[in-house]
Amino acid sequence: MKPWTQARDSALWLVERQFAVSPADNPLTERCTGIGRGHDPAACEDRGKHPCVPFSRVHTTDPKQVQRWFGGEARNVAVAVGDVRGPAGERLLVMDSDRVGAIEDTAAALGHPWLPTMRVNTGKGYHDYLWAPPEVQLGNGLGALRGKFDGDVRAGNAYVIGPGSLHASGAVYELVDPEQPPMAAPEWLLDALTGCSKQRTPEPVHQRPLRMPAGRKSAVLTGLVKTVLDSREGERNSRLYWAAARAFEHARQGLVDARAVADAMVDAAKHIGLSEAEARRTVTSAYRSGAAR
């Protein structure tokens, strides 16, 4: 497959999932096709990174426009981070690791696991795509992660080079798992990026037994409910989202009832201190992400 064909197909995959895209420079062209204030295409040595259009204003989720942009000369794919919304209005956040294991090391140093999310391998490390609540204002600053994370953050008025693109090193940006959607950003990460370490008072833990569906088929939920119950402060929403998404996959295979999944997940979330409204938003988001796939 020719590199520009790969970029076009990846751009079509992205817009099908409502990721706004635009064209960027590709190292295969004779000289840089990117634009930008103070940028000299003829002297550019940072190939494959510069947008070919004003990305904050010119981007699309229209497959026909993708065909026009990526059907001719080689172009990379830029994802307009600030104009992508999740299934419940979430904002897109991309953690850009400059080396393999960077974000995992940072999370571990702060006492947290790093759960799987939509990941794109890059020339040096990877991009991890996450959903942040719409009310949280994020930018490109690392906040409390400065000096603790080998990489950058992209949110708000920003773009990242997307899958199917060609790095100057010759590496191709590739999705690790096309079936893995972005997960909810963990609370500890949002607090670190915003510089706001909020003291949250958990709601009283419910003492009544969890509602679980009867019968042997309910066994498929046991481990996933335990994943939620074992959550620590700062990772409750991300674990709930991941566990609910996996449980709804079982429901789509007919192994368990979808309503029973929702009830069990919400009950587990309430046991660890989340409000019912917050839990249902996260569970609904997990259900919709699976339905979209």
Walk me through the structure.
By secondary structure, this protein is α+β, with helices and mostly antiparallel strands. It has helices spanning 3-16, 63-70, 102-109, 187-194, 219-229, 236-252, 258-271, 276-292; strands at 21-24, 76-80, 91-97, 118-121, 126-132, 151-155, 159-161, 174-175, 183-184. The protein has two domains: 3-194, no CATH class; 216-292, no CATH class. It is built from eight helices and nine strands. The strands form two sheets. Strands 3, 4, 5, 6, 8 and 9 form a six-stranded mixed beta sheet that branches. Strands 1-2-7 form a three-stranded antiparallel beta sheet, with helices on one face. A hairpin with a 4-residue loop joins strand 4 (118-121) and strand 5 (126-132). Helix 6 (236-252) runs antiparallel to helix 7 (258-271) and helix 7 runs antiparallel to helix 8 (276-292).
